[in-house]
């Protein structure tokens, strides 16, 4: 979980999470189910447009997650 995504020249990804925190270790998720840098960039774009951010890609794709 995080509060927001900010542009960052300090990190090679170009992004920084504001107030990141681990809510749970999801041993039921595979590597294919985790969020990617491309998805984080998409979230940052959506945030800049003023849209609400989903808490994770896996949740938005899989309502049973």
Provide a descriptive summary of the structure in words.
With 65 residues, this protein is of the alpha+beta class. A two-stranded antiparallel ribbon has the order 1-2. The longest helix has 12 residues.
How far apart are the termini?
Answer: 15 Å
**Domain unit count:** 1
How much helicity do the residues have?
25-40%
Q: How is the largest sheet built, in terms of strand order? A: 1-2
The description of the largest β-sheet is: 2 strands, antiparallel
Query: Order of SSEs, N→C?
Result: EEHH
**Structural class category:** alpha+beta
**Mean pLDDT across every amino acid position:** 79
Low-confidence stretches: 56-65
Write down how many β-strands occur, each being a DSSP E stretch of 2 or more residues. 2
Silhouette? globular
Beta content: 5-15%
Over all CA atoms, what is the radius of gyration?
12 Å
Q: How many separate helices?
A: 2
List the keywords.
disordered C terminus, two-stranded antiparallel ribbon, 2 strands, single chain, globular, alpha+beta, 65 residues, 2 helices, 26% helix
């Amino acid at each position: 979980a995080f509060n927001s995504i900010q542009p960052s020249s300090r990190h090679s990804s170009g992004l920084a999470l504001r107030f990141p925190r681990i809510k749970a270790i999801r041993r039921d998720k595979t590597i294919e189910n985790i969020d990617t840098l491309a998805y984080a960039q998409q979230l940052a774009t959506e945030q800049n447009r003023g849209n609400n951010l989903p808490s994770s890609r896996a949740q938005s794709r899989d309502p049973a997650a």
